[in-house]
Amino acid sequence: MSTKAPAIVLLSGGLDSATVLALAQSEGFEPLALSFRYGQRHAIELTAATKVAAAAGAREHLIIDIDLRVFGGSALTAEIAVPKDRDQAAEGGIPITYVPARNTIFLSYALALAEVRDAADVFIGVNAVDYSGYPDCRPAYIAAFEKMAALATRAGVEGRPVQIHTPLMRMTKDAIIARGLELGVDYGLTRSCYDPDEAGRACGRCDSCRLRLTAFAKLGLDDPAPYAGR
Amino acid sequence: MSTKAPAIVLLSGGLDSATVLALAQSEGFEPLALSFRYGQRHAIELTAATKVAAAAGAREHLIIDIDLRVFGGSALTAEIAVPKDRDQAAEGGIPITYVPARNTIFLSYALALAEVRDAADVFIGVNAVDYSGYPDCRPAYIAAFEKMAALATRAGVEGRPVQIHTPLMRMTKDAIIARGLELGVDYGLTRSCYDPDEAGRACGRCDSCRLRLTAFAKLGLDDPAPYAGR
Question: What is the interface pTM, i.e. ipTM, of the complex?
Fold first, then answer.
């Protein structure tokens, strides 16, 4: 049995959450990885998450089915085209790729798992630098979730409220990558694209790909993940 | 098209949420009923919820699959015996029938649906009188959820935060039933038992049955729902 404290780590298969997993380990936690199958048009993210969890030696990797498609309302879950070659963040407002209440639903499941596994720590890779208009990636939102969680659960009532760790909150994408490389993260396993092809290759043109490619370029590095047309 | 404001109503098939649905209508809302299939040992609750929604003429009744069984840890989702002939509330502490973070998960989905359906109101039948040690039924918890929700969503950011209505919070069970009867609720359609038989008849002995039977008796009425051995 490990004597390390367990921590729930939300793992998407992307670059950010892979780094968060490594950071949780570097802080001495035993990570329990948690991913969601939420009506994405591609299972590629989850395949990536499974590889990332295995490479990190996570004790457990749970995948929860949640189907937001019954609700409709977002490019990431419904049949709306993902915007390409546009800087949505610069255009302002909340992007079309926003999924309603997504982080709230994800963190709620993490809270339940934390309680069942007797974990007092949850890690999530939200980021206020690349915020891009997602309301549920801001520090004020995370703080409010933490306060609610302290009142929601047996652990909170009994004096051991869950702490939500957001180690990437203030980091730029290139700083995230640099730190992950120090910790041995294999970014070739991660997938960030909103609209990969059937072979799992990134499009290189959506918001997520553009951010990622720019960050690797800034570090003078090649992104080891596969891109279509390269 | 109705000109009434839509409200998400969490509907379990039990006595309380059936009353909440009627109360939401009496306040002029157009209810969108939302139920969850969460690994219960009995589908009887959901059959009851469907009948209650239909009887009330709800515009929509969505059932979301969530599977807390992968987590384990509660009598209502795992294979642990439901306590009988004991007053858990009087024994103090959090009861074995507690489901980890359940209301947080339910309200998170309600928040997502509210955003997609452009609703600013969510109704939930939590009650602090029969609190029975459930942390996520207390007014402080609901207030904290509301604050978090205001920061979580596009609607909240754009100035129309969701309000969580808890009309039963301070009502005794007999007052809830009396009010529901005034509003025409058919309690014969509702099911409250933690451990019904295969025919859907209540056990009459679990915490939930005892509360309900006592309340009907207090009003000098027979509970119209079916009980085993009667």
Answer: 0.87
